[in-house]
Amino acid sequence: MKNHYDAVVVGSGHNGMTAACYLARAGYSVCVLERRDTIGGAVCTETMFESDKYPGGFRIDVGSSAHFMIHQTPVVKDLELEKYGLEYIEMDPFMSYPVPGGKGVIHFYRDMKRTLDSIASVAPEDVENYKEFIKFWERINLGVLKVFLKPPTMGNMFMTSMKGQISNGGMFEKGEQAVGFQRVFSSYGRVVDEYFTNPHLKTALLWFAAQSGPTPGQSATGDFVGWQAMLHHSGGKRPKGGSGMLTQAMKAMLEAYGGVVRSNVPVADILIGNGEAYGVRLETGEEITGDVIISNAHVQTTMLKLVGPEHLKPGTLRQVKNIDVGNGFGMVIRCAVEELPIYESCPDDPEIHNGLQLICPSLQHMNNAIGDYMKKMPPERPAALAMTFSKIDPTLCPKDAHTLFVWAQWHPYELAGGLKWDDIREREAQKIYDEVVRYAPNMKDKLIDWYIQTPLDIERKHGLLKGNVMHVEMTFEQMFMFRPTPEMSGYRTPIKNLYLSSASCHPGGGVFAAAGYNAAHVVMKDLKKKKGGIFTFR
Fold first, then answer.
1. Exposed, middle or buried by CB within 10 Å (0-12, 13-18, 19+), for 24?
2. Which residues, in sequence order, are CB contacts of 264 under 8 Å at separation 6+?
3. Do β-strands 331-337 and 287-295 pair in parallel, antiparallel, or remain unpaired?
4. Bridge-partner residues for 290, per DSSP?
5. Residue pair 31/4 in contact by the 8 Å Cβ criterion
6. How deeply is 241 buried, as exposed, middle or buried, from its count of CB atoms within 10 A (0-12, 13-18, 19+)?
7. In whole angstroms, what is the distance from residue 143 CA to residue 77 CA?
8. What is the pLDDT of residues 362-403, one digit of tens each?
9. Residue 210: how many CA atoms within 13 Å on its side-chain side?
10. Among residues 440, 449, 457, which one has the least CA distance to residue 335?
């Protein structure tokens, strides 16, 4: 087996695979190394719960499930992933809010008119407010998206903003600049309070915005709810066969271009000589060298474990250690169930299972869960988000059964009172399932089996430290040119030839692929110089 490549990628998460695919497409030799026996990192689907009654088992996502952000990038089209087995199914409505204790549901469709009609059925007083809200944030986020798809240098951000000012007539409408900047730098809780009146619509928008991690009162998080505007452009989608079909298609594409993907080969060290990275050492002792090394692992794992403190300057070491990883914020149950939830508020609705179902009865409910989290306790009643993708993708499970995935917040990684996650995982999982039952009583005793992922399980499975699925907290001081540190925000590290490509980097977490896309462009530029301009980007 070949032991030297133009690029060696540590980790097969979707950002690392994105970088690898772009490099291979440009003509470089690439090897991807994955510590687990399956590839894909947190974009991975496994078969579980096979039995005589359910032959073939259930296709269960073990990381991400819904794909929103990647469809706002050129990645799927550029890499022609449909040729390699990727088939996306539209989620429309992409999310829904069944009204708690009442009748009705708010559907959020890709189409604005249909969304406004649905809002009118529950919150007619907020129809015009939603139109204004989307118009304001759409204008901003068309420019922000361009910033996300470039390394976050001051020059890139300034030039992108200036082009937006010229082509779009400005980020804000005339006379709106001061109010506009106030909204951008305020919390998403305040943004929702400013725009909307109806408690059901407010709760739906707040709960969906909370999926990025920061609490509703965090400053400079306004765009976490403002990004709603972009979902009316791209919608939400699901890979047929499971979330992991994205990374499987990337693997097939990479191999078609001559790339190599090896699984079950944990990397022990990144090899450093004279201040330069030149390869990796596997736990087996095997060494693989490369002109560049790209780490898709967590930034702290990369710099503190694989590189090692002895290779870092004191200032760099201090900055990496001080990165705010947070204290986890969620857990998930992946269930095989006998039937789909029948929500009391909309029992005959044919569309509720097309997308995400927001199971959070009120803002106070969410705040209570946050309060428990701040005390380092599991929430007495978690806020939940249900996903029933077997409705739109029957390939996920046997006939006469379904899948039900439920993500919930707020669940601290470090617990107070001597609690241990391994001791309480089933108790806390039952709390999450019970939230669904409160909305859909038919689900009582309909559980066939489940796969539980606490914050500790998430860390063990995916190497996501403290169970933070965004790698590091998505607060303003850790975004753009501050992510993961100012020194490494451009995907290059202080170790020559060593690069970062993971969600630890700009623009952050989620199934976005932007970090891998940006890292690939930085690496290709450097490789082209190194190799005398032999290769060109296609």
1. buried
2. 34, 35, 36, 37
3. unpaired
4. 5
5. no
6. middle
7. 21
8. 999 999 999 999 999 999 999 999 999 999 999 999 999 999
9. 29
10. 449
Q: Report the alpha-carbon distance of residue 479 to residue 472 in Å, rounded.
A: 10
H or E element: which one contains 437?
helix 421-439
Is there a contact between 382 and 408 (Cβ–Cβ < 8 Å)?
Answer: yes
Place of tokens 């990628």: 9
Whole-model pTM over 0.90:
yes
| Pairing status of strand 383-387 against strand 356-359 | antiparallel
- Give start-end residues of each CATH 3.50.50.60 domain in the chain: 4-44+68-87+241-324+473-530
pLDDT tens figures, 68-97: 999 999 999 999 999 999 999 999 999 999
Q: Provide the token pair at 505.
A: 């980097």
Q: What is the DSSP letter of 157?
A: H
Element (H, E) at 277: strand 276-282
Could you tell me the fold of the domain covering 4-44+68-87+241-324+473-530?
FAD/NAD(P)-binding domain (3.50.50)
- What type of residue sits at position 251? K
In this prediction, residue 102 has a pLDDT band, given cuts at 50, 70 and 90, of: confident
pLDDT on residue 101: 87
| 362 close to 510: Cβ distance less than 8 angstroms | no
Q: What is the pLDDT of residue 22?
A: 98
Q: Which helix (H) or strand (E) holds 290?
A: strand 287-295
Encoded tokens for 464:
């996501």
| Residue 205 one-letter amino acid | L
pLDDT band, very low/low/confident/very high, at 153 (cuts 50, 70, 90): confident
Confidence of residue 158 (pLDDT cuts 50, 70, 90): low
Distance CA 306, CA 371 (A): 36
